[in-house]
Amino acid sequence: MRYGKWMAALMALAMVLLMPSQSMAESYPNDNDLAAEDDSKEEELPRFIEIHRDESFIYFMDRKTAHYSRVPHTIKEDMINVWIKLEPLEYLEGDYTYPAKYYLEHYLIRPKRQQIQFLCEMEVAGRPSNDVVDKPYDPRRWESLIPGSIEDIIYHAVMKHKEDVYDESSANGTAVRDFIENTINVSL
After folding, report:
1. Is 155 inside any structural domain?
2. N or C end of the chain, less CB within 10 A?
3. The domain containing residue 160 runs over which residues?
4. Sequence-separated (6 or more) residues with CB below 8 Å from residue 19
5. CA 130 to CA 64: how far, in whole Å?
6. What is the pLDDT of residues 41-95, one digit of tens each?
């Protein structure tokens, strides 16, 4: 019986914290203002930022989809969810006649512990399809960095450009929602 009252009180508190009041909603800019600001920023900055070049590939970070999110089952630890585009150097030189192909790799980066998790890779010729199957998040698949490995290079290159990564955990009260979901296992 007591557990039910605690849950009801906790849910009520969560609803109050997550629902903005009328005065708060009025102080936010409207969607058109935000869209205009986003469009102007998108025009200034390229979507892909070159982060590394070696003898085989040029590595680009996709700034449009890169974002911070909470590491599952933690309260204050963030990770970076990022797609890396790999363009083979052979397409930049010579008389290559086939449609250029490139690779997209999906990584999770854990800055606090200097770890990386590989989720998937896809080969793209033309426009990428949306049928890729990512490996599900698994806390056992975090890899420590090996000096000189490509994962080490990607980790440090993304960390150099972390100011271009969107922090979704600080938007819209998700920190409070994540805290409640992660600590008492209640989905809001």
Report:
1. yes
2. N
3. 46-168
4. none
5. 16
6. 556 778 999 999 999 999 999 999 999 999 998 888 999 999 999 999 887 666 6
